[in-house]
Each structure stands twice: as C-alpha cells, then as structure tokens.
Design brief:
Number of helices of chain A: 12
Largest sheet of chain A: 8 strands, mixed
CATH architecture of chain A: 3-Layer(aba) Sandwich
Distance between the termini of chain A: 63 Å
Helix content of chain A: 25-40%
Strand order of the largest sheet of chain A: 2-1-3-4-8-7-13-9
Strand content of chain A: 15-25%
Structural class of chain A: alpha/beta
Oligomer: heterodimer
CATH class of the largest domain in chain B: Alpha Beta
Number of strands of chain B: 23
Shape of chain B: globular
Strand content of chain B: 15-25%
CATH class of chain A: Alpha Beta
Radius of gyration of chain B: 27 Å
Structural class of chain B: alpha/beta
Number of domains of chain A: 1
Largest sheet of chain B: 7 strands, mixed
CATH superfamily of the largest domain in chain B: Pyruvate-ferredoxin oxidoreductase, PFOR, domain III
Chain lengths: ~350, ~625
C-alpha cells in the first residue's frame, strides 16, 4: 500500500539555512495505526534534521524489522534507506558507516529488534562507539505480531491481553551506559519539547548516540495496567532537566542559575545546554547516570532527558585509523598495489 | 629386508606434539626440497587443539609434479610417543622409521618389514642445551639436520633458508645452523648416507611459488579493491582476514598521513560479520567476509537479503568437515548446497571454485568485479586443504592496465541528466541487472529504499503477486546472465578418443589428474573437465552431453556437485556415477582410481600396490 502525499505547500513556508523547507525532510505517508507513538518520533526526526539544516541526501536511514523499523519510510524521502533484517540494524549500520564516514547515520529499531533478537548486535555497536544516532522506539510489545510482551516490558505490566509480565525487563539505557555509548538519553514520544533538542544533540554528537524513546502502542499496549501506555508514562515521568541544543555558530543567549546548568561542547562546536531540575546531576558521569536511573525506577518513576554525554572519545573510524576520504570513494589508483609489489611478494614465496 | 628405493618420489611424514615449535622446522624441510627444484606438496594434519595433542606434517615429494595426496607414508619422522603405534602402522612395507633412540624403542613398535633409524635427539639436546625450551625447539632443527644427511637434502640450502628466516635477528642464525650440524653429523657418522630414499636437485619448479591459499585470498582482496572486511574467527578461514590485514598494512597505508585505506571489523558473530559486509557494499565499498561451514549457516539470513535486495557481497567459505561442528581441522567440499541455495525462499548464489593459490588470488579479486557487475553475493568455495597448506602454484600476476569495474552505478551527473524517473529495479538493458545508486550521490534524485520485502521496479513496497513474480523472474534472468560472466571450465582431453568423462573441482583436481594418468597407463581413457563456477556454464552442459558416462569426483558424502548438475542441467542421474571421499583427509589418486575401476564394472580392477624396491 503506498500513498502519494499532496504536493501543495504554503508558498511562504520557512526555509532553513540551506534553503530546504520542512517538506524536504518528509517521507511517505505512515501506514502505522492512528495515534502510534512512532509517528511522533518520525515527526521529531524530521523537525530535527530540518532545524539542523542537514542536506537530506547526506543521511542514511537504517532499520531492522518491526513497526518501528518501518518508520524510515515515513521520514527523509530524499535519503537512501535500508530496511534490513530483524535485530541486525547495528551491523548494517556499522558496515555502511565504515564505507562512508561522511554521511549522517540514523538507525531506527524497536524493543523486540534491539532487546531480544538483536541484543548481541546492540551490545557490540555500543562498544565500537560507532558514529550514529540509534533510536529505539520502545513500546514494550511486539506490535506487528499482535501484542506479545517484549523484553523491555516491566514486571507486572499487562498489555491488552491482560496477563501481567513476570520477567525482569531489560533497560537499554542502562546497557548502553555500561557498554560504552558516549551519548545516552531517554525520552517520550509525547514530549516533543524534550525529544527534538535531544535528537538534534545526538545527531551532532560524534560517536554512538543512543536514545530510548518510550512510544506507546495504541493498539496493543495502551491500557491502564501497562507501564508503556500514554497515561502511565505521563504520570510517572521525571526528567534530568530540559535540554537546549545550540548549534555551532549560534550564540548562547540564555542565562541560568549556577549549579542548575551544565554546558557540554560537542566535537563540531555545537553546545548542549542542560537546565537541571535539581542540583548535582552531572551528565558526564556514567555511574551517576546509572544510579539516577535505578533510583527513579525504585520510586516508580521513568527518568528521561539527557543522561550521559562524553563528546571527545574516539569513534570507530578513529579507533580503526582509517583515512579521511570515505573508503567507498577510493579508486583503483588508491587501492591497487600493482604488479611490481606482487613480483616482490612472489620472490618471497620461492 | 626390503628398503624402498626412490629418488624425488616419496611421502615423508613428521609426527609431532602440537605447540612444540615443530611447524617451522617442518616448513624448513619442505621449503628446502622446493629450493632444490623438486615439486613438493606439504600438508598440515592438525587437531582442534593449541597444545599437547598429536599433529602431523606430511610432505609429498614428486619430481613429476603430482601434488595431490598420495596416501601411505614412506618415511616417518616419529617424534611423538603418543602417536607412535599409529605412526609405525601407517608406514609402507620397506619404509623408514626415524625415531629418538635415547630410550630403547618399545617392543610393540617393532615391525620386521620396515627400516629403523634411531637418533638420540634428547641425548644430544641434553648435552648441548641447559634451557628446557631450547632443548625442545632445537630438537626439531636437529632432526632436519639429520634428514639432510639421510636424504641428501642440500645443507647449503638449509643454511640459506635459516639466514632468510632470521633476517634482522642475526643472533639466531648461528645457533640454528649449529643445531642442523649436530643432526647432520650424527647421521653421517652412524648411517650409510644417503638412504635408498633420497633427493636429487632438479629444475622442475621453475618460477612457481609455495603459498597458502588463504594468504592468496587475502592478497587477492587487497588487489581486488576490498576496503571493508568484517569477520568472526573460525578455523580454517581465520588466516584469510589475517592475511588481508597483513598485506593491507604493508600495501594500503596512505603515505602522507599513515592512515589506513581499509577497515577491518572483528564482529560479534557471523551474523554481524555478514551484516557489516551488506551495509558496506550497499554504501558503495567493496566488502567481504571469510568463514567456514558453521558461519555460512549463520550468514544464510543475510545472504538471502543480499540476493533479494541485490547487494554485491563477497563471501569466502573455507570448507571443513561438517555437519555442525564436524571435524574443524579436517578438509571437505561439503558446503555446496549450503552455499548455492543459502537462505529461505527461492535463492541461488554464484559460486567460484579455485584450485590453486594463484586461482585463490585471481578469483578473490574477480569476486569483487563479479559482485559489482551482477549485484549479488559471490561465494568463493575453497577449503582447509587449499587454504591452510602451502600449495605449489604458478606465480601471482596482475595486469596494471586494469581498472575496477563497479558495474551499473549511476553517478551524480548521470542522475542530473536523467529525464525519466529512476527505478532501482528497472531492467533497462534486458539482462536482469539494474542500475543502482550509492547513498548521498545526488540531492534530489536516485534515493531509494532497500528492503528484504517485495517491491516494485521503483523500490516501492508491494504485495502484488504479479509484481513479485516479475521481480523473481528477473532475478532468474540475472542468474542466467551470470553464466557468461563466471569463469569457464578447464578441459583435460584424453590422449585417445573416449565416451567417458570425469568432472572435478577445487582441491580434487591434482589427485584426479594423477588418477587420470594412472588410468591412461592401464588403457582406461577419460576426458577431464574442471568446473570453476556455479551457475554451470554452457560448456559444462555440452561436456556432459558429449559423453555417455561422466564420473563426478568430490569430497562430500552426498555427491553435492553431482546432484547440482542433475538438478540444474536436467541430467539423467544414471549418466553421472559418483566418486567420493569425505573422511577429512584430502582425496587421493589411489582412491579415485579404485572407485572409477569399481564403477566401470570391476572387470579391470587391479591391485593397487606401490612398487617396492
């Protein structure tokens, strides 16, 4: 099923600094259920890329399988996309990134895709500090197969089927922190004010940026007994603070009380400005982030916002020591050692 | 007592303990014979173990240039007490049993029809060295020195090789040569040297080289323009990527910055390894992975995706004995089905069958061209025998005028000038191969969505049966096109006209050709054909058509190549008798000859016995 979106747009639509309008970042019409949290995340990605003025064709969208993994079709229609196989988005993104270090990589996955079938790949892409944005659209259930509990469902949480989940959930932010992600955040699909600056900061971060976005499944997991429904999440949200993202070249104008604000300058010169809810939260301390997640969970709260960022760690290309030119742009002259080198090798084998 | 008399035509086997440093001494022996201009074929016979278990190294010396496994052992260098019973038993009558006689030989190891050569290796070492590690290492060098006297292996050649081996570590040269001399001296003083079995300098090697197939594959990937290698360690393929890394570190460093013009990712498993290759190839890099059977099983999921989404990946399968973990350190040609039809649904993959290190090099480089041209997985089917043994081979060659052919890829300019809508899966040229674009090429045109789900010619998702079938038929057409792209078979016509033929591939080649010579001497003539690729070219079908009966030689239980010929070329199974050996050691000429005689009706079966002097 495909839709063609009407081409008409208001002639005075605002353009970004490259001259692109928001429409240039849109994709095909969504085929997800009406009210699905995932569509809000797609909209947040569109807005973030538009505001950051990223040339749309310089983005590569990669996903696995599941409702969430369908969404790359619904944003950035001028970008190449790759809907790969279940749980394997991280490896495809890794290879793609190795081939061309100059593109922006957006990986979209779900809780089944990342926390179950792809848990191994999720773990290892963290370790490599691959330069990409990795978003999990987390609804605690398998939507496309009609609502089975996923590995991120909380103990006692019940989906539409009504049976409370008896198993310990996997917290992907906790895993990302333990496994070396250099940017970790959590958000809620219903909180655009928080999600957009977080995505913008993550896109500007050099290294592995992970955002776990709680994104209710309106069809199978939005009932009162579910901890991933709109109602429950809204009532139990806590935030590390509000995030302001200031792109490079832009002046910081706001003024904040000392102790309640923290600035992190990213590798490209842009700045994340965190207005904290409480004094003492440090976003460059892994252990403190882990502790904060645990403490909030103990109080029945879901801690959102920017949890951790380390802007200066070497990414996978730096760890590899690859040339600055994208590998895929190297040609025969660059790559082939020629017959003379081969003759020397032959001589050594006689 | 009889003693085998042979010049430049024998099999010598070294029985060692794994992890005792014997490999380099044994290599030294083989290389020295090779330097004397005599063709050699060394084979490692090793356990799945790092230290302690028995390991063997066998060298076939054949001035006629027969490089396949012969079967049987004429000279045993029995250093390992653990395997001695087996080692004594495996000697041919009249053979020579070389052992350490520091302690008297156990009576159980006595045979009346073989010759014993006792040299007090432990005693010599104890006298010469105080350090236990040195005692162990030099013991190996001492027996090579003794063999030099016993077999007329030129001592100067050994000295020259030691000099090369320790270039830059000159301190080690003198002690090694001293150890060689110790062995040489003892043997010359205590035995009538040379023995009846011996070496004599020849000029039968020419400009050929001695190289492991895996190293040649790794080097071929460097020459073929691979920039991304992703892998997961597995015997016997590990040394493919290690060789790629070694050669790339030498040949692919940017002189200005010192940066690497390649990337190697050691993945968390074979699933991820193939996923990375798919991602890199989709994004325009030449990428490959190497694995063995168990890895192919895991990679099947991604092979299906790459087939259906038409991503040009390269996979090297260094086959070992399966199924499951099978015999990890033994050879087989048993992954043909698993590779050719990998993944669920209707899939078919292009396979290449190299037989020598030169072909490993050539086909590795060619794989990347084929993958780009055909936009589909290319699987190189090598095996442990070819990959992990030094194989004698024609030297490697490269044509400097060659420019990589990246296949049908639209660049920014072509997209800019394009009037019509870009369709990723539009068969514009009628050969089943469509045009692709790399991500990031053009701001407005050429973007498309790659997926493993069905889609139309414009890469738009669809569940229409007609569109799906159209696409599947086009993929079949592309496979048909592939027949004219893949390497053609090699023919070995019989000296006399015959209605019988034999088909073989890969590491069954040397033994089959030797068997054909033996059979011809007995008046049995067969035309030979070496298959080099799947899909089978027209020539393969013609060859079968032109013969009444075609034996198919392979190293697996189920006759996989034979069955693929039957299915794909629609051949009457009765026309293709099967010759198989799959015990994990390389197939031998003796075995092929025996089975062909048997299949021909048994009338001409003669006892196969090596002449004993």
């Amino acid at each position: 099923m495909t839709y063609i979106r009407p081409n008409f747009r208001h002639p005075e639509l605002a353009a970004n600094e490259l001259g692109y309008v928001r429409k240039d970042y849109e994709g095909a019409l969504s085929t997800l259920c009406a009210g699905c949290g995932h569509d809000s995340i797609s909209a947040a990605i569109i807005q973030s890329c538009f505001e950051l003025a990223i040339p749309p064709h310089q983005v590569a969208k990669i996903s696995g399988i599941g409702c969430s993994s369908k969404t790359p079709t619904y944003f950035l229609g001028k970008s190449h996309g790759f809907n790969s196989v279940h749980g394997r988005m991280p490896s495809v993104a890794t290879g793609a990134n190795l081939a061309n270090r100059d593109l922006v990589y957006i990986g979209v996955s779900g809780d089944g895709d990342s926390a179950s079938i792809g848990l191994g790949q999720f773990a290892h892409v963290n370790r490599r500090n691959l330069n990409m944005l990795y978003i999990v659209e987390n609804n605690g259930c398998y939507g496309l197969t009609k609502g089975q509990d996923s590995a991120t469902a909380d103990i006692g949480s019940a989906s539409k089927k009504g049976t409370p989940n008896p198993y310990e959930p996997i917290d992907l932010c906790t895993m990302a922190l333990q496994l070396g992600a250099t940017f970790v955040g959590r958000s809620f699909s219903g909180d655009k004010e928080q999600l957009v600056p977080l995505i913008k900061a993550a896109l500007s971060h050099r290294g592995f940026a992970f955002i776990d976005v709680i994104s209710p499944c309106v069809t199978f997991n939005n009932n009162p007994k579910s901890t991933k429904g709109y109602e429950y999440v809204r009532e139990h949200l806590a935030a590390t603070g509000t995030v302001d993202f200031v792109p490079v070249r832009q002046e910081i104008t706001a003024d904040f009380a000392p102790g309640f604000s923290q600035e992190v300058t990213l590798h490209d010169g842009s700045v994340i400005h965190l207005h904290k809810q409480q004094e003492g939260i440090e976003v460059n301390d892994r252990d403190a982030a882990l502790e904060a997640i645990r403490d909030h969970k103990a109080q029945g709260q879901i801690l959102t916002g920017l949890l951790y960022v380390e802007p200066d760690d070497a990414d996978f290309h730096e760890l590899q020591g690859t040339v600055n030119t994208p590998l895929r742009d190297l040609d025969t002259m660059d790559l082939c050692p020629g017959s003379r080198a081969l003759e020397a090798i032959n001589s050594n084998l006689r | 007592m009889k003693a085998i008399q042979a010049v430049n035509d024998f099999v010598i086997r070294f029985a060692n303990v794994n992890g005792t440093g014997s490999a380099s001494a044994n290599n030294l022996f083989a290389k020295a014979v090779f330097r004397m201009g005599i063709p050699v074929s060394p084979k490692n016979i090793f356990p799945s173990n790092i230290q302690g278990l028995p390991t063997w190294y066998e060298v076939r010396v054949s001035e006629k240039g027969y490089l396949g496994s012969r079967g049987g052992v004429d000279f045993m260098v029995a250093i390992n007490p653990q395997s001695m019973a087996e080692d004594v038993a495996s000697l041919e009558p009249g053979g020579y049993f070389f052992y350490d006689n520091t302690k008297p030989l156990d009576l159980r190891y006595h045979r009346s029809d073989i010759n014993y050569i006792g040299i007090p290796l432990t005693d010599i070492c104890r006298r010469e060295y105080t350090d236990p590690r040195q005692r162990q290492l030099f013991k190996n060098v001492i027996y090579v020195g003794a063999l030099s006297a016993l077999l007329d292996l030129e001592f100067n050649v050994l000295k020259e090789l030691i000099g090369e081996q320790f270039k830059g570590k000159e301190k080690l040269v003198a002690p090694n040569i001293h150890a060689l001399e110790l062995g040489y001296q003892y043997a010359s003083e205590n035995f009538q040297c040379p023995l009846g079995i011996r070496l004599e300098r020849r000029d039968n090697v020419g400009d050929r080289i001695l190289m492991e197939g895996n190293a040649a594959v790794g080097l071929g990937a460097v020459y073929g323009g691979a920039t991304v290698a992703a892998w997961y360690p597995i015997t016997p393929s590990t040394s493919v990527v290690e060789a790629f890394e070694k050669y790339a570190n030498r040949l692919r460093i940017d002189p200005g910055s010192g940066d690497k013009k390649f990337a190697i990712a050691q993945a968390e498993d074979e699933l991820a390894a193939m996923g990375m290759v798919v991602g890199a190839a989709w994004n325009g890099a030449r990428a490959f992975t190497a694995t063995s059977g168990p890895g192919v099983s895991l990679m099947s999921e991604f092979l299906g995706l790459a087939y259906f989404a038409e991503v040009p990946v390269v996979l090297v399968d260094v086959q070992r004995a399966g199924p499951s973990t099978g015999m990890p350190t033994r050879t087989q040609q048993s992954d043909l089905f698993a590779a050719a039809y990998a993944s669920h649904g209707d899939t078919k993959h292009v396979l290449l069958f190299p037989a020598t290190p030169k072909e490993c090099f050539d086909m590795a480089a060619q794989s990347f061209e084929l993958a780009d041209q055909l936009q589909t997985p290319i699987i190189m089917m090598t095996d442990l025998d070819l990959g992990m043994n030094d194989n004698m081979s024609e030297p490697l060659e490269w044509d400097d005028s060659k420019v990589y052919d990246r296949g049908k890829v639209f660049n920014a300019e072509q997209l800019e000038n394009m009037k019509e809508r870009f369709g990723r899966y539009l068969d514009v040229d009628g050969d089943g191969i469509c045009y692709r674009t790399y991500p990031g090429t053009h701001p407005e045109k050429g973007a498309f969505f790659t997926r493993g789900t069905s889609r139309d010619e414009y890469a738009i998702y669809t569940e229409s049966g007609d569109v799906y079938v159209r696409n599947m038929e086009r993929l079949l057409k592309k496979f048909e096109t592939a027949k004219s792209y893949v390497p053609a078979p090699e023919f070995f016509p019989a000296k006399e006209a015959t209605r019988d033929g034999v088909i073989f591939f890969g590491t069954s080649t040397a033994s089959t050709l030797e068997a054909l010579d033996q059979l011809a001497e007995e008046g049995v003539h067969l035309d030979g054909m070496r298959v080099r690729a799947f899909p089978f070219n027209r020539e393969v079908e013609d060859f079968i058509e032109q013969h009444d009966r075609v034996f198919v030689v392979e190293q697996n239980r189920d006759g996989q190549l034979r069955k693929m010929l039957i299915i794909e070329c629609d051949i009457d199974p009765k026309k293709l008798p099967s010759v198989r050996y799959y015990g994990g050691m390389p197939i031998t000429a003796r075995e092929i000859r025996r089975q062909i005689h048997q299949l021909r009706g048994g009338a001409t079966v003669t006892k196969i016995r090596r002449k004993v002097g």
